[in-house]
Amino acid sequence: MNANKIPDIIIGRLPVYLRALQRMADSGLKTTSSQELGELVGVSAAQIRKDISQFGEFGKQGTGYAIVYLIEKLRGILKVDKIWDVALIGAGDMGHALAHYQGFANRGFRVVMVFDNDKSKIGKNVGEFTIEDTAHLVERIKPAGIKTAMLTVPATAAQSVADQLIQAGVKAILNYAPISINVPNNVKVQYIDPSIHLQRMTFYL
Predict the structure, then answer these.
(1) Helices 8-26 and 45-53 sit at what angle, rounded to 10 degrees?
(2) Strand 148-151 and strand 84-89: pairing?
(3) Which segments of the chain have a pLDDT < 70?
(4) Residue 15 is part of a domain; what is its CATH number?
(5) DSSP code of 62?
(6) For 162, which of 14, 139, 140, 181 could close a Cys bridge (C-beta 3.0–4.6 Å)?
(7) Is residue 203 part of a domain?
(8) Strand 64-66 vs strand 132-133: parallel, antiparallel, or unpaired?
(9) Would 142 be classed as within a structural domain?
């Protein structure tokens, strides 16, 4: 499967399907239809069938999808059938919340290191982690083979920290800083800016 040939908008819907399927499985359901799944996630049944068929045929006409089987397949497609170690850069309010968040582990991610450049925070604990100095970021992350990082630093620091992460071998950055960062083509960045989503919603109010 060539990941570059699958539209990113489809990849973006797969975790939504996976979350809904997991909820179905947790409630004891064994099978579902594209219609039922679509009603849960607000996507048409036809779109769900089209999205899933990009990766193979995982359902049967008339019987629908076996939920546990489809969960297994989607986890494999998204590569969350293993646990990814994550470095968290920035131990402010957002960083603290993410370090304490319990929802990553059952989705395929595990925060293993927390960094900050504030001397008053370095050496202190946040949850089960001791905050480390960003000055040692590359030498700590590179030998650990960490490929994924979350960036919760101020906008002014985001690019320089991203440069360090790339130097450390990180290939995927979830960026909470309210600024776009420049990265090589082989590095993937996702942006999370709550104010942008709020502004998008208030248009409809």
Answers:
(1) 110
(2) parallel
(3) 1-4, 59-62
(4) 1.10.10.10
(5) T
(6) 181
(7) no
(8) unpaired
(9) yes
∠116-189-15 over CA atoms, to 5°? Answer: 110
Residue 178 CA: distances (Å) to CA of 11, 41, 92, 143, 196: 23, 28, 14, 29, 9
Type of residue at 196 = I
pLDDT at position 157 is 95
Q: DSSP per residue over 81-129, as a string? A: SSPEEEEEE--SHHHHHHHH-SSSGGGTEEEEEEEE--TTTTT-EETTE
State the total domains in the chain: 2
Asked if 111 and 152 touch (Cβ cutoff 8 Å), the reply is: no
Q: Judge if 26 and 117 occupy the same domain.
A: no
What is the rounded distance in angstroms from the CA atom of residue 161 to the CA atom of residue 166? 9
Q: What is the pLDDT of residues 65-111, one digit of tens each?
A: 999 999 999 999 999 999 999 999 999 999 999 999 988 888 899 99
Query: Would you state the structure tokens that stand for residue 165, as one six-digit string?
Result: 């992460």
Q: Are 153 and 168 in contact (CB under 8 A)?
A: no
Q: Please name the residues in contact with 4: beta carbons below 8 A apart, sequence gap of 6 or more.
A: none
